[in-house]
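Protein modeling request. Please complete all fields; requests missing the sequence field cannot be processed.
Requester role: graduate student
Desired output: 3D structure, token encoding
Chains: 1
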Amino acid sequence: MIFKDKLLGNALLIFFFIIGWIIGLLPFRVNLISNFDSFIRLKKDLNNGPIIRVSDDYVSPNQHSLDILHYDLNIDLYPKEKKLKGIATITGRILTNQVDKINLNFYDNLEIKELILNDKYADYKNEDTDLEISANLTSLDTFVLKIVYEGTPKRSGFSAFTFGEINGASLIYNLNEPSFASTWFPCNDIPSDKALLDIRITNDSSQTSVSNGKLISIEKNEERSTYYWKTFYPISTYLVCIYSSNYIQFEDRYITASRDTLPIKYFVLPDHLEKAKVDFKNTPKMIECFSKMFGEYPFIKEKYGIAEFLWQMGAMEHQTITGIGSNFVSGNNFFEDIYVHELAHHWWGNAVGPATWKDIWLNEGFSTYSEAIYAEYKAGKDALKSTMISKFSDDFVNTLYNPGKNLFSTTIYDKGAWVLHMLRWEVGDSTFFQILRTYFDTYKYKSASTNDFIKVCENISGRDLTDFFNQWVFKGTENITLDYEWYTTKLNDGKYKLTIELIQQQVQYNAYTFKLEVKIEYEKGRCESKIIDLNDRKENFEFVLDEKPKKLSLDPDNWLLANFRDQNEIQN
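Delivered output (572 residues):
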């Protein structure tokens, strides 16, 4: 998922950077921003992200004893009444010794007309979002639960299930993340409980209905049409989707390394067709990039697709069918980073899902760093560097792991990307991409925790990375702030001793441990680099050099989430 606040924050930074550069060229002073503090406060507000969290009591303890195997959903849509009728047939099994009830998530404003467990009517109660069903099941027992229901879904979270309209035409869509799938179908709404899905969507015959997986059939009559979609790979409930509107469809394809063909399908509003053809034309190249870097596209038996919807805050990575807000279809490829980000989720978030919402940085940080990887794939190291600079901030809040109410803050997105960037610097390019490929291959179609990822990192690198992840993921909430001072002493043999004094000045974390490149520039223009390892708050390093240095640059390629302050320049 990517949302407007994050996009707006990045756009503001770019805008003010450009304006500042233009002003710097003027022969006179321009007071463009009378109160720059106002802009800084706005940026900090944007960094906090929308306050969307999963309530502590949303998932009951009993739900962790369930393993849902399959959802069969029949959804009839009635856009004029803003109502749906549903039949959910849920197949699952019990993982504990014995249970006397099954708990699922389902909003109680939807009316249950019939509930049948293993071919018998069952007692139940539905309060708030908890559906409790009387049962008598033992370990590994399989159950089949059929629930018939109807009503108008409650608007929650990022809008949940929406009966929308644009230019007089109906457009129906949903946004389940993180915990709103149960606004429109009963489910075990835990991201790690993946299941297979069959979904049949019925709407007016003028509407095209789109969902996850592969289109199996379309049944049409004069007034109503049913689109039947099926997944061949497991899916988390927060990624299950419906889009239904008067879409125009066009297609592309991606050819895999093994010469298989992946269909790419686009569903857009009629007046956006030509714009969408321009904006989406690079999708095969994006898939090619990530397939080379991470492993082959994981849903090759199904499709990749994009559907236009009315969520004006951003986009959503519904499995195999990304939703793109209609205002992000421009016709000039201005929002390509969004398309890249949502595609990347098909590796990070969809194929490899989060074990819990505490691990959401594994979704968003990875997909944000994938934006930088794609920029590098297209245009080289300078593009990687500039992309990461655009995601730098001094205002990241909270930790990456277990961020509490800030599931969608820019800390999760941009600091998450920076942690991967720093890990790449720490272990080296070859090892880093081997880590990503191994992590993807190990947990594909499953779920992974932060500790699962750390184990892969340590196994592949052969290193203990406890300090790295403690300071950047579990404990540290602040960037490195490093003051440095340097001076040279001429030695008797004509060489020079360079002394560098470094002091970490950040407040909330005493001493980060990291490796640092020091670029030394000499009087005659020659340059060389030294790599030093920092472990303490205050350290000195000495080097014997053949020439007198003229200038020092710390971290010249921007691998570290750090601010460097040259005390020599300050004193001068």
